[in-house]
Amino acid sequence: MSGAKTPSKIGFASRLGFGASGIGTLYRDVTEAQAAEVLAAAYGGGMRYFDTAPLYGHGLSELRLGTFLRTIDRKTVTVSTKAGRYMAPPYGETVDYGLWASPLRLKPVFDYSYAGTMRSLEQSASRLGIADFDLVYIHDVDRFTHGDAYERRFNEAVEGCYRALADLRKAGHIKAIGVGVNESDVATRFIKTCALDAVMMAGRYTLLDRAAEADLLPEAQRQGVEIVVAGVFNSGILATGPASSGTTFDYGAPPEHVVARAKRIEEICTRHGVPLQAAAIQFAFRNPQVSAAVLGMSRPERIAQNLDWAKLPIPEALWQETDALFEREG
């Protein structure tokens, strides 16, 4: 992986992280045995950063990751989870399980208040079986998630969720605070408003979408905030290829201009003999502000493939051509 690295204050145990949404049954069912196998394969392959969230499988991802953590030395890994939702019994309500194929039959409740944050972390600690967190992200405070309620939710998160996490950080119960969102301007607003340690930027600093270059990355550098990149495949289009039937961008059908750009990038990669997926994984590490990249996986064979792609030599000429493409398109 290329790129001169800025020293990490958080101290991620590996730069390539395992995103545990897949073992929460994102898109497809994953058995207990399969989840255990893929986690063991990730650890065995050298991945030492594990990221999860209460939302993933409505608590299932944290439960499964917690079972795995009890089989290894906790000190060898970095573990992060997220706050902003807690799980509750639906008590007869109809629950929309969305993209989760076989989640726990619990209802996620948005709550960015101080008390709601403490409740969320108490539940996470119980599911994961750990009392300490290396990093906790404030989760999904963006327009994509909340629409017209975004402004209210942002203020609630600053006054409640951030304040709770700051108290826990001051007391030494968590090491670092971050925010995990899908919109770079929202992440930029957060780091201007709160004393954050990290931002998990999903989908906005990728081989296909560089929106974060305009606002988040410069501000993060000024503030000394570390960047964790998620969604390096933009939810599917860079993993399956733009010509693949049913491919997705931001968890939906990709717009035509996005497909066209992805095809041009794929042509550049093909010309240099580099798999599109390898370029997608390694792109983020060109920026020294990026401390880690998280890949969501639910099949053991994907672990080996992604690790190989992360180490594949990529010629500088490929990056120069993709940079030129973005300069032309603006």
Description:
The relative contact order is 0.14. Helix 1 runs parallel beside helix 11 and helix 6 (184-193) runs parallel beside helix 7 (216-223). The protein is α/β, with parallel strands linked by helices and 330 residues long. The mean pLDDT is 95. The protein has helices spanning 32-44, 60-69, 114-128, 143-146, 150-170, 184-193, 216-223, 237-240, 256-271, 276-283, 300-311, 316-329; strands at residues 16-19, 49-51, 78-83, 85-88, 107-110, 135-139, 177-181, 198-202, 226-230, 290-296. An eight-stranded parallel β-barrel has the order 1-2-3-6-7-8-9-10, surrounded by five helices. The protein has a two-stranded antiparallel sheet with strand order 4-5. It contains twelve helices and ten strands.
> What is the helix fraction of residues, given as a range?
40-55%
Which of globular, elongated, flat, extended, rod-shaped describes the shape?
A: globular
Low-confidence stretches: none
Major sheet summary line: 8 strands, parallel, barrel
**Class from secondary-structure proportions:** alpha/beta
Computed Rg: 19 Å
> What is the first-to-last residue Cα distance?
26 Å
Strand content: 5-15%
Largest sheet: spatial strand order: 1-2-3-6-7-8-9-10
| Average pLDDT score | 95
Provide a count of the helices. Answer: 12
Helix and strand sequence: EHEHEEEHEHHEHEHEHHHEHH
DSSP strand tally: 10
